[in-house]
Design brief:
With about 280 residues, the chain is of the alpha+beta class. The protein has nine helices and ten strands. Helix 6 runs antiparallel to helix 7, helix 6 packs parallel to helix 8 and helix 7 packs across helix 9. The chain is elongated, with a radius of gyration of 24 Å.
């Protein structure tokens, strides 16, 4: 147990600071489920979005085993895992954090240009940039970049340096996958959509006008991640109004003008509009 003591001490230190730790095996992977829970035969722990103690014998349910309970960390049930552990991991989302995992020099260069400065932890091949706030975890959001927050784990490599910044929209936008288009759209406003199934379901034009005004306001108010905001806004407008034929050139022009005022090119506007329509099957 002697070799495991430093790891257990680190885990208890993290738990005392509100960071849920867990033991990791060689290769930076969590311990597998117990025999009862193998291949999720148990159906998984209830509410797997949050960590907490498990009643199974030993460490179970991977990242969800992470806990701040010192009684669990020091229990005889976990003793074997600590003896076999090679490192300490933690659940970022359980601590209210998001880790942007930069796996190589190119990814680090991109982050220094694109992301606000925050607490940084050196890794074997790159860096962890840690932000205050949680979001969904997504791998390969761009070359060499993973996001680890909710329902994920990261290896503990020390406190790092710098001040932890609030999770910015530009990181959240990385999780939004915009469909690609194989054909270049013409750099003009798209034609109004024609009705597809009977009369317009909106009771008055006021409903549509209010929706367009809110969409314009959302685009205008974007402080960063403008391209992703424009796409999501177009998607929202088309999901509500795209099938009834009530959108006109005037409406789309208002949306495009708002996007171009934030720096979007006509081509980007057309691509985002086309991608949104494709996503909705319009």
């Amino acid at each position: 147990m002697t070799a495991a003591l430093p790891l257990l001490d680190t885990a208890c230190m993290l738990a005392a600071r509100g960071v849920p730790p867990l033991p990791l095996r060689a290769g930076k992977v969590p311990f597998g489920n117990c025999r009862v829970c193998a291949k999720n035969a148990c159906g998984g722990r209830p509410n797997m979005k949050t960590p907490g103690p498990c009643t199974c014998p030993g460490v179970c349910h991977a990242w969800a085993a992470a806990t701040t309970d010192p009684n669990v960390l020091n229990s005889s049930r976990w003793a074997t895992a600590w003896r076999q552990a090679a490192a300490v991991g933690y659940h970022p989302g359980g601590a209210g954090l998001t880790v942007v995992d930069l796996d190589n020099a190119d990814a680090i260069t991109w982050a220094r240009v694109s992301l606000p400065a925050t607490r940084t932890v050196p890794t074997t091949r790159g860096e962890h940039w840690i932000y205050q706030g949680t979001m969904q975890s997504v791998n390969a959001v761009r070359p060499g970049v993973d996001i680890k927050s909710l329902m994920a784990y990261a290896r503990w490599l020390g406190p790092g340096t710098g001040v932890t910044a609030a999770l910015p929209d530009v990181v959240r936008a990385l999780a939004v996958k915009e469909p690609s288009t194989t054909r270049r759209a013409p750099e003009t406003h798209p034609a109004p959509l024609t009705g597809q199934s009977g009369p317009c379901p909106h009771r008055t034009p006021v409903y549509l006008d209010r929706g367009i005004a809110m969409a314009v306001q959302r685009i205008t108010g974007a402080r960063d991640a403008v391209h992703a905001t424009v796409y999501r806004t177009f998607l929202a407008v088309l999901s509500t109004h795209g099938r009834c034929g009530c959108l006109t050139d005037a409406h789309t022009a208002r949306l495009f003008n708002a996007a171009q005022a934030k720096g979007e090119s006509p081509r980007h506007c057309n691509d985002a509009w086309t991608n949104a329509r494709t996503t909705l099957g319009l």
